[in-house]
Design brief:
Blueprint (H helix, E strand, L loop, with lengths): L1 H12 L12 H11 L4 H17 L7 E5 L6 H12 L3 E5 L7 H4 L12 H9 L5 E5 L12 H8 L23 E6 L7 H5 L2 E4 L5 H19 L8 E2 L1 H10 L7 H19 L7 E2 L1 H8 L17 E8 L2 E13 L4 E4 L4 H16 L1 H4 L5 H4 E6 L13 H13 L7 E3 L2 E2 L5 E2 L4 H10 L4 E5 L11 H6 L1 E5 L2 H8 L12 H15 L1
Parallel strand pairs: 1-4, 1-5, 2-3, 3-4, 6-7, 8-12, 10-11, 12-15, 15-16
Antiparallel strand pairs: 8-9, 9-11, 13-14
């Protein structure tokens, strides 16, 4: 009897027809999104397009299923809340991190003791409407084991062609999810099954550059931390120089979550002094910052101070944004072997082998004696060996460092590069161009070499970074070497005058 009563309670309490009217004022939505978020142009445009079409097509438009993908702390979850506010919808959220049981999504069958519907219907009951904004957080953290695959159970939930009759194992009655606006979030799409990705419209959240972080800090982070720590805006001023020091020396991230933590730490220390009736600093200076936060936790990567032979700078993508990597090549006596170190993956190993094969094939054109490959071993090392590295985008960097070591021509220290190389020397496109260009801009490089097919990706790069860098687009490795390598140094003939003077002094000594 209790089982039947629980089942009937669920049937009654689920929102079968209750809904909230959508606020379809595009200008109001734009004001809400801009007031609460800085940047995120693509995501904002997509939401405003949805609202505009919704106002024209009404019920004929299908609800979008969006997937926000980006590094931690870039505002994916908070943007979902802002969208719900702009639309006037209820906001509900489910975290999928660590979920391994399919029943968490579809529910348990009523034959089990303590059976309940899945998280989808539990959340719909909590929302109380048939058209909430439903956020599925951390979809890339789903797991699977002998209890089933939750990602497979989501295929029906996130498919507009099927979710109008969603079947939960507990209810066994079709429930309409077609009026729900689903938004999922992920840090990377790698672990997400392709069939699930195909059902979602992916919107990438790129990392913020330093200038954007400064705006976000002044507009959102500092006022919020001052309020949370009981301080008035007139009591504490944090300038751009201090924020830059926090960004560069105490945080290293694509988002702003750690930046807010460090600002909060400064505010808490000032609040404690205020509570103890001590004198508090009205303005935080770099000297005061070091006293409050201690010594810097991060040593910024510094560019090379001079051009080096056998050392090139590559550009890499990480989950926390762009990064630069150094590639070092050393020739040692041996029998023509190749060794690559630095905790690199199989793909980068193959890139190194392809780069060496190409350089061997062009030995005469580069002015390299082919016999050197039989008498010397090549050792390629990628520093910071504790960090795993993989991918094909270091191909042209490896080839440049090899060519430099074999020809003795130094690599220009202000040049960063990224691109895959083939055995014929073609340069193929790579991903993460925005993050890589911003890494070069942050390190104050002057020239960036990229594949010609990646020119279209510059639309996502801030104009300030584009104007500060000399961007070179190449199709062949020969073009890379022409940009990156300095000309061959010519040997100066020895003068005979010093030898003549030395012989005169020796003669004078002998005569005495």
């Amino acid at each position: 009897m209790s089982i039947l009563r629980t089942y009937l309670d669920w049937l009654i309490e689920l929102p079968w027809s209750e809904s909230t009217p959508d606020n379809l004022d595009v200008r109001n939505a734009s004001r809400v999104l801009n007031r609460r978020h800085h940047g995120l142009r693509k995501a904002k445009e997509r939401i405003l397009e949805y609202i505009a079409v919704r106002g024209l097509a009404r019920e004929r438009q299908r609800q979008p299923i969006l997937c926000f993908v980006g590094p931690p702390g870039t505002g994916k979850t908070s943007l979902g809340q802002s969208i719900a506010e702009a639309l006037g919808r209820k906001f509900v959220r489910v975290s999928l991190g660590g979920v391994r049981d399919e029943a968490e999504i579809r529910g348990h069958r009523r034959t089990y003791i303590g059976a309940l519907p899945g998280r989808v219907l539990q959340t719909m009951r909590r929302a109380g409407t048939v058209n909430p904004l439903f956020m599925l957080d951390e979809i890339d953290k789903l797991g699977h084991d002998f209890r089933g695959d939750p990602a497979a159970a989501l295929l029906e939930v996130l498919d507009p062609e099927q979710n109008h009759a969603f079947s939960d194992h507990y209810l066994e009655i079709a429930f309409d999810l077609s009026k729900v606006m689903f938004i999922t979030t992920a840090n990377t799409l790698g672990p997400v099954p392709p069939a699930l990705v195909d059902r979602m419209e992916v919107i990438e959240f790129p990392g913020y550059i330093e200038e954007e972080k400064l705006v976000i800090a002044h507009k959102f982070l500092i006022p919020r931390q001052l309020e949370e720590n009981g301080l008035e805006p007139r009591e504490l001023k944090i300038g751009d120089d201090v924020l830059q020091a926090i960004i560069r020396q105490y945080t290293w991230e694509a988002g702003v979550r750690n930046l807010e933590r460090e600002i909060g730490k400064v505010c808490r220390k000032v609040a404690r002094r205020k509570a103890e009736k001590q004198k508090i600093p009205r303005k935080i200076t770099p000297t005061v910052l070091a006293r409050l936060l201690g010594p810097p936790e991060i040593t910024p990567r510094e560019p090379e101070t001079e051009d080096q032979v056998g050392s090139a700078t590559g550009l890499a993508w990480t989950e926390n944004g762009g990064e630069t990597i150094s590639v070092e090549v050393l020739l040692i006596d041996g029998k023509g072997g190749l060794q690559i170190t630095g905790q690199i993956g199989d793909v980068m190993q193959e890139s190194g082998q392809a780069a060496l094969s190409y350089v061997k094939s062009r030995a005469k054109d580069l002015g390299v004696n082919p016999e050197i490959f039989e008498k010397k071993d090549v050792h390629i090392h990628i520093p910071e060996g504790a960090i795993p590295k993989d991918g094909p985008s270091a191909g042209i960097t490896l080839a440049t460092a090899l060519a430099s070591a074999l020809t003795g021509r130094p690599v220009r220290r202000q040049v960063g590069m990224s691109g895959e190389i083939t055995l014929r020397g073609r340069v193929l496109p790579v991903g993460g161009v925005r993050e890589k260009v911003l890494a070069a801009y942050r390190l104050k490089l002057t020239t960036v070499v990229l594949p010609a097919q990646n020119k279209k990706d510059l639309a996502d790069v801030p104009a300030k970074a584009r104007s500060a860098l000399d961007l070179r687009f190449v199709r062949h490795i020969d073009e890379v070497l022409a940009v990156a390598l300095l000309p061959q140094a010519t040997k100066q003939p020895r003068s005979t005058r010093p030898r003549h003077k030395r012989s005169e002094r020796q003669a004078a000594g002998a005569s005495s």
